Amino acid sequence: MPRKTVARTARLASIPLGVAGRAVGGWGKRLAGQSADEVSAERTAKTAEQVFAVLGQLKGGAMKFGQALSVFEAAVPDELAEPYREALTKLQAAAPPMSARTMHRVLAEQLGAGWAQRFAEFDDEPAAAASIGQVHRAVWRDGRSVAVKVQYPGADEALMSDLRQLQRFSRLFQPFAPGVEMKPLLQELSERMVEELDYRAEADNQRAFAKAFAGDERVLVPRVVASAPKVTITEWVEGTPLSKVIAGGTPEERDRAGTLLAEFHFSSPSRVGLLHSDPHPGNFMLTPDGRLCVIDFGAIARLPEGVPRPLGVMTRLAVDGDPEQLSALMRAEHFIRPGMKLDPNDVLAYLGPFAEPASVEVFHFTRRWMQRQAGRVGDMRGQDFKTGRSLNLPPQYLLIQRVTAGATGILCQLDAHVAIRDIISHWLPGFADPDS
Question: Boundaries of each ABC1 atypical kinase-like domain copy (predicted)?
Answer without folding.
Answer: 90-325
